[in-house]
Amino acid sequence: MKFWICTTCGTQYMASDEPLEICSICSEERQYILPSGQHWITLEELIASNKYENKWEEKEQGIFAITTTPSFALGQTAYLIQTPSGNILWDCIAYLDAKTIKQIRQLGGIKAIALSHPHYYSTQVEWADTFDCPIFIHQDDQKWVQRKSQRIQFWSGETLSLVEECTMVRLGGHFRGGSVLHLQSGDQGKGVLFTGDIVQVTPGEDWVSFMYSYPNMIPLPAGKVKKIAEMLKDIPFTRIYGAFNRKITHEANRVVQKSAMRYIAALDESLTESR
């Protein structure tokens, strides 16, 4: 019996002798099956290949970005966030080896794992078992969990306080339970937001965007984007750390608001008609 991992999205499934024919995460409209077909691997095979390692970057005091190189699956970034109440792992990556485990333990371990949405669940249960900690996922995304575990706690409502400094906020959009994480003490007390791609930092790192599906280029309705911007308007944050090690370093809340306005203008044609 093996815990198979989809090589396209990095999601790990319940143990079985043979992998499924298709990945449930990749086969719906927000993801994709590659033209070459469905492919699977295990964490043990990833480690044994001696091909991968996790790179660490301290973004600011107490915030570490963890990214697998060469890129595997979606290539997202996880963040280890140090707080006086314990460390939070925001989002997850599939690759977990002895070197990564040692480094995290040296930094104080993990008190809790918090997830933005199903594309980044990856090997979350492996991480939780290794560091003996709970996983927090919004209950609206419960059906997308492919590897069950008693460590997973499904929360409800619009906000969840993980520790005094960290609060999860459900924004929806990309997924119904799509969530972001607010670190009140980040950027010297001015506030930091970790967004996954619920709010996607663009390559120029001066705008953000909002999509139902990024690879398939399916937009969100204007009303939903307006609601997301309104929900974030009164939350203090000057920086955003996004899914692919991208960041907004100044006036991040203002960037979200102006980006939402531009997005809505594009959908109602007022942006393109003015060009």
The profile of the biggest β sheet is: 7 strands, mixed
Low-confidence stretches: none
Strand content: 25-35%
- Structure summary, number of beta strands: 19
Helix run count: 7
Total number of distinct structural domains: 1
Can you give the helix content as a percent range? 10-25%
Structural class: alpha+beta
Short description:
With 275 residues, the chain is an alpha+beta fold.
Write the layout of secondary structure elements.
Elements: E1 4-6, E2 40-42, H1 43-48, E3 53-60, E4 63-69, E5 77-81, E6 88-90, H2 98-106, E7 112-114, H3 124-131, E8 135-138, E9 152-155, E10 159-163, E11 166-170, E12 179-183, H4 186-189, E13 192-196, E14 200-201, E15 208-209, E16 211-213, E17 218-219, H5 222-233, E18 239-242, E19 247-248, H6 252-267, H7 270-273
Parallel strand pairs: 6-7, 7-8, 8-9, 13-18
Antiparallel strand pairs: 1-2, 3-4, 4-5, 5-6, 10-11, 11-12, 12-13, 14-15, 16-17, 18-19
Domain Metallo-beta-lactamase: 75-244
Organism: Thermoflavimicrobium daqui
Protein name: Metallo-beta-lactamase domain-containing protein
